[in-house]
Amino acid sequence: MTDLIDKKSTEQAGKTTPTGHVSIMVRGANAAGRARRDVFTKYLLGAVMIIAAIPLVLIVAEVVREGAGAISLEFFTEREPPPAREGGGYAAGFVGTGIMMLMAIGMAVPIGLAAAVYLVDYGKGFFATIIRFFTDVMTGIPSVFVGLAVYAILILGSGQVIGFGGFTGAVAIAIVMLPIIVRSSEEVLKTVSQELRRGAFALGARKWQTTTKVVLPAAAPGLTTSVMLGIARGTGETAPLILTAFGNVNIVWAFFNVAIGAVPLQIYSGAGQPFDPGIERAWGGALSLLVIVMVLTVIARYIGARATKAHRI
């Protein structure tokens, strides 16, 4: 009874409607307060974003400042000299990294995208839960464990028929890339509206046709970004390559059973040396990797924008 009296009193005061909603007059009276809170939230989030970007800006600025002096044509075309000697470059590392990344992309991207499509459009129940569980576990595993596992299974497990080289390094990088591609692609595919799928079904398309001709094109920009995240992670990996690629200062074009160079390995080796030329080359290698990742990201954004435009048409 008391509540009923209070409700009627409030309605009479014009604060709420008979249906319990806040009166438009009260909303109007609070408009200035809401505007002030919106402005405060806007500037607060902007300040947090700036604080979060400071470490990245400092890292990029330091890498550019230290590494710019080492970058030249010679740096990309010549092999690394002894640590104390001036000149030379990371040609062996660039060739090795390129070979291993191409092989790793060929392994991880098709499997990762297929797994994401399965989880979103086909996977139900226990098996899908198991895939998500192991993918999440793989995301958190230190990459050195991946290298150790590949070393134990492929190199020791085969009786060293498979040795150190580009193939084992690519397998390790692909395993590092795989959970990132699967989980991020899954989230992207979930953003494609169910109405789009139902519309394709209503037009008579089968499920696989809906997936390949409707869902994947609609999600292409996000999927491209997911793949690029995986590639960026794999390009900079060092720990698994120590146990699989093993490193080489000579340019190696072989895919199997010959230790191969990689830019992260040369950076790791050069940064630990007491000689200034070796440290300077390590900074140059870090700057090169940074530029490569940024260029790949820009290309991915461009492809994604083109795919979005084409899909809209």
TrEMBL record:
The UniProt GO MF terms for this protein read:
phosphate transmembrane transporter activity
Q: Does the keyword Transport apply?
A: yes
Which UniProt keyword terms apply here? Cell membrane, Membrane, Phosphate transport, Transmembrane, Transmembrane helix, Transport
Q: How does it sit in the membrane?
A: Multi-pass membrane protein
Explain the purpose of this protein. Part of the binding-protein-dependent transport system for phosphate; probably responsible for the translocation of the substrate across the membrane.
Family per UniProt? Answer: Belongs to the binding-protein-dependent transport system permease family. CysTW subfamily.
Know the name of this protein? Phosphate transport system permease protein PstA
